[in-house]
Amino acid sequence: MNSGFALAGRTANEISAVVEAGVRSGALPAGAALPPIRTAATQLGVSPATVAAAYQALRQRGIAESAGRQGTRVRPRPAVAPARGQFRLEVPDGVLDLATGGPDPRLLPDVGPGLARIAATSVPTGYAAAAGFPPLFDAARAALQRDGVDASELAVTGGALDGIERLLNAHMLPGDRVAVEDPGWANLLDLVAALGLRPVPVPVDESGPDPQRLADALRAGARAFVLTSRAQNPTGASVTADRASELRAVLETHADVLVIEDDHAAELSVQPLFHLGGTTRAWGFVRSVSKPYGPDLRLAVVAGDATSIGRLTGRQRLGTGWVSLVLQRLVADMWADPQVASAVSAASAQYERRRSALVLALRSAGLSVTGRTGLNVWVAVPDETVAVARLREAGYAVAPGALYRLATPPAIRITISSLSTDDVPALASATAAAVGGHSLISGV
After folding, report:
1. CA of 265: how far to CAs of 22, 217, 233, 238, 269, in Å?
2. Tell me, what's the pLDDT at 93?
3. Confidence label for 407 from pLDDT (cuts 50, 70 and 90)
4. Which residue, among 233, 242, 189, has the nearest Cα to 211 in the 3D structure?
5. What is the widest separation between alpha-carbon atoms in the chain?
6. Model confidence pLDDT, tens digit, residues 32-65
7. CA distance 48 to 53
8. Beta bridge partners of residue 369, listed in sequence order
9. Hey, which end of the chain has fewer CB within 10 Å, N or C?
């Protein structure tokens, strides 16, 4: 327990509120351990059941997590913002940022021409006209169908995570189990915790999730499965044709499971798409535009079965209502612009050169690396803290794997967005030195 924090309260609500306030103020940092239940109960003069209920509420709100024999601790990225802002990896001046995970701003297409075109064109205004922009739906449907995705039912959401959250809410209840990739997207793991769902880890290799471990997760009661189609964050994995066939064989025996596929890289990935949707009755395929076109373009198209899309759009009407029609028009315009398509294609090729060069250099140095496509490379290490600290001293900021792992071994994530191919030899040498010269067994 942090010396600047004192647990207090007489009821479960009061105790959980005090802990939440401690997280917001910074008195309880990420990873801080909460007192054991019986110790806290004696200190506060309440029953152990009261403390247990408070801790359960904190876990359900995504603020705390169970640490096994180590008790309960604050999550690495709790679902409450501290007074000084969101939890972020700090990158000191003079250190190359290979930790953030976003696209290279220099490779994003220019939105200016598209904004000018839609500004010069009249557009219907008012609530009735805002639900969906037909040209956006037409373009999305055509692109998805080329990739083998049934796009007869479509919705538009405020980005990938918004789409995934709405699909989960359409089918799941707090306490339900969800099969998730391990390692996997940190934001998704945080979302699952914040929704009160229980993650069941499914290990990932370069070809995608492990089919046997998925079968184990489903037998253990997982009612949903969320996976990344390609350019998986953090490992750079991409589901292959053979792996997709194996995963479909597992899912065919669990027809009631909700399957959600995240295709966040879309046009940036050099790997083809192998789609799982339709194997089960409930499914959703989410394709967002932030990585290829710009992080501020908070839009994703979601295809799925009629029930899932109907529930998603129905609930959307009761909240945000719709995604900005201006944004929908801008994305539709960019999808139709040959110059934008050329810029995205050039960015994809540039990312491929950077990633391939780094993977080759790291493997030549004897390191265990995954990264078939996308913006990230996953490097196995004996000790994440040591590796991250040594690389920072050498001038490189990388992300610790603990942000993305549930039960898989230690690793670091290196984002190649800010990397040039000229930087690769020095970075590979520094990474090998940071790992300590160990020759690690291949695999995640």
Report:
1. 37, 26, 10, 11, 6
2. 82
3. very high
4. 242
5. 69
6. 999 999 999 999 999 999 999 999 889 888 888 8
7. 9
8. 379
9. N
Contact 413, 234 (CB under 8 A): yes
Pairing mode, if any, of strands 96-97 and 154-157?
Answer: unpaired
What are the CA-CA distances from residue 164 to residues 87, 185, 190, 327 (Å)?
22, 12, 12, 20
Three-state DSSP class for residue 154: strand
Taking residues 90-106, report their average pLDDT: 89
| Under 8 Å between Cβ of 292 and 299 | no
Output DSSP code: residue 183. S
pTM over 0.70: yes
Residues 6+ apart with CB under 8 A from 182: 201, 202, 203, 204, 405, 406, 407, 408
CA distance 195 to 325: 28
Which residue shows structure tokens 């997709």? 244
Q: Is 190 left (phi over 0), alpha (psi -120 to 50) or beta?
A: alpha
- Cα distance between residue 111 and residue 295, in whole Å: 12
Question: Measured between alpha carbons, how far is 288 from 38 in angstroms, rounded to an integer?
Answer: 46
* pLDDT tens digits, one per residue of 107-156: 999 999 999 999 888 766 666 656 678 999 999 999 999 999 999 999 99
